[in-house]
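Q: What residues go here?
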């Protein structure tokens, strides 16, 4: 099996790369951090593939030598928060949406035609899409776009299975910057185990940790005005 993973140089992506390699897959580890990619490539089953996921031509050039993949996992992303919604930062919004959502379109353009019939496409979104949360105007909007994109692809693709991943809080170098509590956070290693298990079963949605995501799904049933009152309380 040939598995391509974007965002493979840290966090969930790095754990997915090493775990799939240990399972015997040939892993194409993708990212911008050349040094980290070289470290990953020391594993017998991992090949380094450096590109910026927001650059379509760079993706196509870097992957031209690979005629097909059995599995593509689009995991690359970033998180920045809007600290002052009244004075909206459009530059921040553009950065986050470009990195998290537009990059998915570029990767799909370059990589989707190379997924073999019967193969798998995995898009990593976030459980933040279940509810509007404080300071998440950019991150939440970008990940909501990823979720809708995955669901639409699942409708239109007949020969490729699509799995949408909704993680809860995961301890990674990215979330280490968070200045708020992260209830029920799991390690990147545990997150990778959840994803691999769900993808192996070809589930349409993988969400974890289950207790946390189920709570969010239940809260989603609340009338929006009531949730907004609760959410405003969280932001204080």
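A:
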């Amino acid at each position: 099996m040939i598995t391509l993973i974007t965002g493979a140089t840290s966090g969930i992506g790095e754990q997915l790369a090493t775990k799939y390699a240990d399972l015997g897959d040939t892993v194409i580890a993708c990212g911008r951090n050349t040094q980290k990619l070289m470290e990953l490539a020391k594993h017998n089953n991992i090949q380094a593939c450096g590109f910026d996921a927001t650059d379509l031509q760079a993706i196509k050039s870097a992957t031209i030598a690979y005629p097909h993949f059995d599995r593509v996992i689009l995991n690359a992303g970033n998180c920045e928060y809007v600290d002052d919604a009244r004075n909206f930062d459009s530059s921040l919004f553009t950065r986050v949406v470009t990195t998290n959502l537009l990059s998915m379109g570029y990767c799909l353009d370059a990589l989707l035609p190379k997924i073999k019939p019967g193969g798998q496409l995995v898009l990593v979104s976030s459980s933040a899409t279940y509810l509007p949360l404080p300071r998440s105007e950019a991150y939440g909007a970008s990940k909501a776009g990823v979720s809708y994109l995955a669901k639409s692809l699942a409708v239109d693709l007949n020969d490729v299975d699509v799995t949408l991943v909704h993680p809860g809080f995961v301890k990674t170098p990215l979330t280490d910057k968070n200045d708020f509590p992260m209830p029920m956070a799991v390690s990147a290693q545990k997150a990778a185990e959840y994803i691999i298990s769900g993808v192996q079963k070809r589930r349409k949605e993988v969400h974890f940790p289950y207790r946390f995501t189920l709570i969010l799904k239940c809260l989603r049933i609340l009338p929006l005005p009531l949730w907004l009152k609760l959410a405003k309380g969280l932001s204080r």
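A: Context that may help when evaluating the design: Strands lie at 2-5, 26-31, 46-50, 69-74, 115-124, 160-167, 170-171, 186-187, 205-208. The helical segments are 11-22, 34-40, 56-62, 90-111, 137-156, 188-200, 210-219, 224-234.
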